[in-house]
Amino acid sequence: MQSWRVKRGCRGLGGARRHGKEIILEGLQSVCRGSALFLGGNEVKSRAVVKYSSAPPRTAFARLEEKTDLKLPPANWLRESAKLGPAGTTILGNSKKSKPFSSFGMAYDFIDSVGNDVDVVSDSENIKKLLKIPYSKSHVSMAVHRIGRTLLLDELDIQELFMRSSQTGDWTWLKEFYQRLIDQKWQRKKKSKEHWYQKAILSKFLYYSINGDGAAQPVPSAAEQQGPSSSDQATDSDGASWPAPFEMPSSVSEDPSASSQGSEPLEPSYIVGHVASAPKEQNLTTLFNDGENSQGLKNDFVRNILWTFEDIHMLVGSNMPIFGGGRYPAVSLRLRDNNKPINVLTGIDYWLDNLICNVPELVMCFHVNGIVQKYEMIKTEEIPNLENSNFSTKVIKDIAQNILSFLKSNCTKEGHTYWLFKASGSDIVKLYDLTTLCEETEDKYQNPFTMPVAILLYKVACNMMMKKNQNKKHYGTIRTLLLNCVKLLDKSRHPQIIASANYMLSELFQLDEPKKEESSESPLNENSDESYSEEEEELADSDENGSYGTGSDPSDDNKAVAIIKSVGELSVPEKYKSIHQIRPSCTFPVCHDTEERCRLVLSYVLEGLKSVDSSIKKESDLPAADPNTPIPLKYEDESTRGGPEGLEKQMALFLDKMGSLQKGNYSSQSGMIPGSWQHKMKLQLILKSSKAYYVLSDAAMTLRYIKLALQSHDTYCCLCTNMLSEVLLFLSQYLTLCGDIQLMLAQNANNRAAHLEEFNYQTKEDQEILHSLHRESPCQGFAWATDLSTDLESQLSVSCKCYEAANEILQFSDLKSQNPEHYVQVLKRMGNIRNEIGVFYMNQAAALQSERVVSKSVSTAEQQLWKKSFSCFEKGIHNFESIDDATNAALLLCNTGRLMRICAQAHCGAGDEFKREFSPEEGLYYNKAVDYYLKALRSLGTRDIHPAVWDSVNWELSTTYFTMATLQQDYAPLSRKAQEQIEKEVSEAMMKSLKHCDVDSVSARQPLCQYRAATIHHRLASMYHSCLRNQVGDEHLRKQHRVLADLHYSKAVKLFQLLKDAPCELLRVQLERVAFAEFQMTSQNSNVGKLKTLSGALDIMVRTKHAFQLIRKELVEEFDQPKSDESAPAADPSPGLSREEVIKLLSIFESRLSFLLLQSIKLLSSTKKKTSNTEEDVVLKTNKQIYSQLLRATANRNSTLLERIDVLIQLLDQLARGGSGGQ
Predict the structure, then answer these.
(1) Cβ proximity of 695 and 598 under 8 Å
(2) Where is composition skewed (Acidic residues) in this entry (predicted)?
(3) pLDDT at 36 over 80
(4) Cα-flanking dihedrals φ and ψ of residue 921, to 5°?
């Protein structure tokens, strides 16, 4: 906010407030919203914003007539009136005095400011006392507590404390310590008569002042406004309210309306039921009541002010009466003895009071022996320049900054009670850590500050947790606050706070946070200057500045944390500034992996569960359980489980239980009362543990963790009175993951022993959490899903049932529509597992079929397996189609087609191969297979949807057509069909196979497609060749068959030539083409025609050279392989090359070449006799030479295969160069 110098005439706090607590928004409703007062030549920035006020509307004070005797009581003295405000009256007019826990009362009301924005929370009297230390000889005794970056200051009344110690013995250790080190002859100091006299006169004066105009004004803090002689003395003990050390009840009230304060500036704190993953519908009860009377934690100041003094932000409580109206909108009223001049202490006192309350003027009433003399008006900025009361405002500013730096640098441990002490008349200020001193005694809970500090730590953490939009960066601070809170409390006395704190600690770790947030650059570590974390305590306590050292000075005290050796140091500008900036700390622990994060969460959950369990009284009714004894994990094999049939029964029971959950059945073995804090907290903790185990299981894919997650969830179901949809969704997710893990285990059967060992392992932490769960439920609700089976079929069935159960849960409420992504994932998994089971049964059927040798008929077992497999595929297809997953539906249709082909293969006769025919059953199943493949293609629509699946389905369809055609060709059903019909069907099936065989697209499957297409053309050519040989008559049909045979032979050759690994097939096709030419030659009569055919046949022979070169290359590689790599004899470089087949084909080739050459020589010789042709002569000569060499080569029986091939290649070269016939 902009600040400026106050001009003359800018007065007071205009605008009346309503009676009762309220927050004054936008600061003061005044002319001067903030001010930089120009005082004595030094500018000091001061700004005050009233956060809360219970004062009634301000009215003018009554100006007393001269000679009024203040020793006489006014008519309204000590009379109770609503206009006196909330204060009750006593003989001194008011009971208001600083309580030991006054700062805590304010902190509870303004929890937002604590730990973050505000540096100091305290009574204005304590602030003034600190700032007057260098000027005053009076003693100072204050308790200091750190909460985050905020310091809470409270008066520690030693006299009151030791009076209490004499009665109860609570503070004996401190009394002994005090007498030993500070004041050996301590005795209670009594108030002087003068003190009581001054108080009585002040009380009567204020009552006179509010009586003048009939509109009585409240006097909230008369007892505080003391004369100069008493302003620095110890306060009365009458109103002090020290709680007994153990007054906090172990079971606190749960009624939110039981708060002792009528109206609160802030909403009460709740156990965090809304943070992170906690179901939003569950509002948990108030943990404790704000402002417990027994604790003295009430905020009983007339006004709470946010005061910014230079760069120091303070939340201050003030009871100073402020008057206003008429010429003076806001003034403070003071009574002075005219015989006693105003000294520096009184001046500072008045100046600070007016600054804190933003009052621009002071009205001073002077009296002599109680007789009013005169009134005097003094401006606030003129107070530092008054005669006998001259002080520098800049020095006050330096004192404030130095004291704050000193305290912040040394009060580093949250939860510790520090004692700032200066003895009367001494210049030395000492700071002690009372908590550390107290721990040296037997019972650390003797410190009465323990409980209020713990509650405040808890409330500040709660408040930060509620601010979801910004709490991520404060997680380190929240964690430190909660850990310190738990450290302070006795587990047996405060189980509820401890359970709640541990739950919040577990909530700080986001179980599902993405990986990037686990890095060291996480925003969790970018904290502002806040309190030290536990790890830094040792460093924080080290001696960082010579000013705090405990040297050889006799005044040094080795028990003190730090010492200011002379109060004069506080006036030196920035004396302690060097360590005023507190290091960034409270860094949130960086979890480098998911397991570490989940384990941290589970450790906090376990502590929370222990707290809840310890508070439930019916322990004697529970079965005795030793946490050190592992709970046996049931291990069943398929024989005891009863297989998939037993699963069906367990599933039915499970679904019945889920249905009853909707009605809210409650069953707890420990006797927890529904709605109690234990019940609500245990529900939250169990839910958190189930989620942590789920995340662990998801990361490690282990059945052990998902079993623990489901056991936790089962217990949650037993305790829950109203099952939330969010929790049902969790269960669906858990079961889905359980299905995934069971499927993974089924697919990794080789590691079964390792999986079993891992499944049976338990950490001590897991055992203790399980014991806590077993207090409420037997945890067997999901045993059917989490047991480790040794049987593959059982594991697949369990996996399927898990997905089915997950799907059923989504049907219970509107979860399916609310979580469409999860629903789709469940159905995908159901489709996938049904495919897996279908393939499992299909493979079993195929295995049975391969074992069946003798029997021709199909066994019942095979048929049963077909039915099971078909049923699974059908359901899986339905699952995928219901979520429009065309690709996976196509894959399952493809598998169904494969099943049909297995059925077809099972029906082929196992009898005599020569009598076997293609059966109608085979045809039926192959046609069904074709239908399923075509459906798969229709499901995909186009190749663009999923090219790989499209190509796969096309290949399978081509294979089916090809197999069907091959079987019909090889085992023609001539007993049922005519030869022509069979040939037609074979031709159609082959052409369809060819249509779905993509030879052009470049892919890994391209060579296979080319081989398939070449084989189809070869078979078709062979079929037409055969028809031509066997056919008589119908010349047109013969010609057609001749053309088709020639066409298919040439296409087969072209395709085989593209392949490098099919030389034998290429050779065979070429030989068949030669045979085809020979057959044609037999029907020719003219020599010219025969010569032409012979020339074509020899040309085909020449073109086989490529095939022989490929064969030679493979033989050479095969010959060299053992020499170069004897360690791998099993490696076959050419699995497609058969030596026997090569020899057979070579022999045929040699004989056919010999025959063709002989026929060529004969025909050319006979032609030569009739005509003379030079070209034919050359051909004849060449053919004779080649024929001669061939005869010699074939006659040599000692030639190796490689040598024979070399000879042939050489001869074919000569034949190619010399021409092969006379065209």
Answers:
(1) yes
(2) 527-544
(3) no
(4) -60, -40
| pTM exceeds 0.85, yes or no | no
H helices of 151-233, where?
158-168, 172-181, 193-211
Strands 312-318, 120-123: parallel, antiparallel or unpaired by DSSP? parallel
Residues 1114, 1204 contacting (CB under 8 angstroms): no
Can you name the residues that pair with 368 across neighbouring β-strands? 371
Q: What is the pLDDT of residue 856?
A: 64
pLDDT tens-digit readout, 303-350:
899 999 988 999 999 888 888 866 778 888 899 998 888 888 999 999
Q: Who contacts 1137 (Cβ-Cβ below 8 Å, separation ≥6)? A: 1063, 1064, 1111, 1114, 1115, 1118
Say if residues 230 and 65 touch (Cβ distance below 8 Å).
no
Tokens of 933: 């493949």
Residue 449 CA to residue 433 CA, distance in Å, equals: 13
Q: Which amino acid is at 492?
A: S
Q: Which of 89-98, 313-322, 1055-1064 has the lowest mean pLDDT?
A: 89-98
For residues 1061 and 1136, the answer to whether their CB atoms sit within 8 Å is: yes
Alpha-carbon 103 to chain mean position? 39
Angle, to 10 degrees, between the axis of helix 1063-1082 and the axis of helix 1139-1170?
30
Percent of the chain with pLDDT over 70: 72
* C-beta atoms surrounding 267 within 10 Å: 11
**Per-residue tokens: 777:** 């439920």
Assigned token pair, 758: 């891992």
**Could you count the other beta carbons within 10 Å of the beta carbon of residue 1169?**
7
Q: Is the dihedral of CA 616, 620, 622, 628 positive or negative?
A: positive
Burial letters 1132-1148, b for 16+ CB under 10 A, else e? eebeebeeeebeebbee
Beta strand 120-123 with 150-155: parallel, antiparallel or unpaired? parallel
Helix residue ranges per DSSP H, 971-1062? 979-995, 1006-1030, 1035-1058
Q: Hey, how many other C-beta atoms are within 10 angstroms of the C-beta on 948?
A: 11
Between the alpha carbon of residue 1222 and those of residues 343, 1161, 1180, the distances in Å are: 144, 11, 9
Dist CA 590 CA 1003 (whole Å): 48
Cα–Cα distance measured from residue 11 to residue 60, given in angstroms and rounded to the nearest whole number: 14
Residue 116 Cα distances to 402, 461, 1136, angstroms: 20, 11, 80
- Round to whole Å and give the CA distance between 779 and 712: 7
* DSSP string covering 107-136: HHHTTTTTTTT-SEEEEHHHHHHHHTGGG-
DSSP state for residue 89 in the 8-state scheme: P
Supply the pLDDT for residue 754: 84
* Residues constituting the chain: 1223
Q: Which DSSP symbol is given to 279? A: -
Q: What is the DSSP letter of 25?
A: T
Cα-based angle 255, 259, 264 (whole degrees, multiple of 5): 125
Token representation of residue 501: 């704190």
Q: 512 φ, ψ to 5°?
A: -105, 20
**Paired residues of 44 in beta bridges:** 37
- In 3D space, the residue among 108, 81, 104 whose CA is nearest the CA of residue 94 turns out to be 81
Distance CA 256, CA 830 (A): 49
- pLDDT single digits (tens) 443-496: 555 677 788 888 888 888 888 888 765 657 778 888 888 888 888 888 888 899
Closest CA to 666 of 590, 725, 603, 720: 720
CA dihedral for 756, 761, 766, 771, sign (positive or negative): positive
Nearest one of 1076, 1077, 1063, 1093 to 1160, comparing CA atoms: 1093
CA angle, corner 618, sides to 612 and 500, nearest 5?
A: 10
Mean pLDDT on 633-643: 44
What is residue 322's three-state secondary structure? Answer: strand
Encoded tokens for 275 = 């943070």
Please state whether beta strands 418-422 and 429-433 pair in parallel, antiparallel, or not at all (unpaired). Answer: antiparallel
Helix axes 102-109, 450-466, angle to 10 degrees: 10
